[in-house]
Amino acid sequence: MNTQAFTWLRSRPRTTRIVICVGIPAGIACFAFGVWLDSVDWWSRHSYVLNIFSGLTGVCFGVPFALVGLDYLIKNQEEHREAERVRARAVVAASVFVESLLDVFNGLTLDEVSDRVRALLSEALAIKMMRGNDPGRKDREGDLRVAFNELLPAPGGRPHGTWSSFPRHSNEAQNMRLWRVGVQKSWRRLDGVRAEMADAWIDKATETAADQAVEDLLTGGRSPWKAHHEGEGAEAMRNFLRDLKALCEAAEALEAHTR
Predict the structure, then answer these.
(1) Neighbour-count burial of 3, counting CB atoms closer than 10 A to its CB (0-12 exposed, 13-18 middle, 19+ buried)
(2) Which of 13-17, 37-41, 128-132, 248-252 has the highest mean pLDDT?
(3) Cα 1 from chain centre
(4) Which three-class secondary structure string do you get for 61-85?
(5) Structural contact between residues 141 and 127, judged by C-beta atoms closer than 8 angstroms
(6) Cβ–Cβ under 8 Å, residues 214 and 247
(7) DSSP assignment of 246-257, as one string?
(8) Using one digit for the tens of pLDDT, what is the confidence trace for 208-251?
(9) Furthest-apart CA pair in the chain: how many Å?
């Protein structure tokens, strides 16, 4: 406790330190001297001096403690203002991330994209569990591509007939590369406020999943626009939807924490 008090005192301006270091000991000395004078009945003959001495004792105690209280109030106000500034930066950074994430989704809201991505991933995983020669598999894969095209319409309105047709849509592939760059930049921008937000940040599991998704997004076997064979394309779509789901969950958590 004493160490903390001395540390606090050393961090104060020089004038404040002088007032506290001189005022409180002087107040104690005045109090003790006044008690002694009272014991010898000196005050009864010097009432005017008593008033002056009482005022001086009050000043010696009151001014230092007033400075301590004022410093506490100022510090609280500064901390509050800084917290508001950090929160404002977090709101802007989170909004930029959400906007960059939704940029390619044709005006859909985050809730709409999140719901559709979860439904598409669930269907893609269900199709994966079907036998390769199951007669209904191709129809379900076709329906999945139609649903995906509704989520992310292909440029020029050309829907994807097969998984291997994705790389042939060069305009779409270029749009997705630019989208990936925007998502990664806006996510990294959040690093500047993540540490300052401390416990008010999103939960660690969601953040870790989003970090990994940002790193893996549309790389290698996780991009349908890089897969030239049907099996590779189906697996790449599942991976892309997994990454997209992690990013949507992070965006939802960010909106909840900065609302």
Answers:
(1) exposed
(2) 248-252
(3) 33
(4) HHHHHHHHHHHHHHHHHHHHHHHHH
(5) yes
(6) yes
(7) HHHHHHHHHHHH
(8) 999 999 999 999 889 999 888 888 889 999 999 999 999 999 99
(9) 115
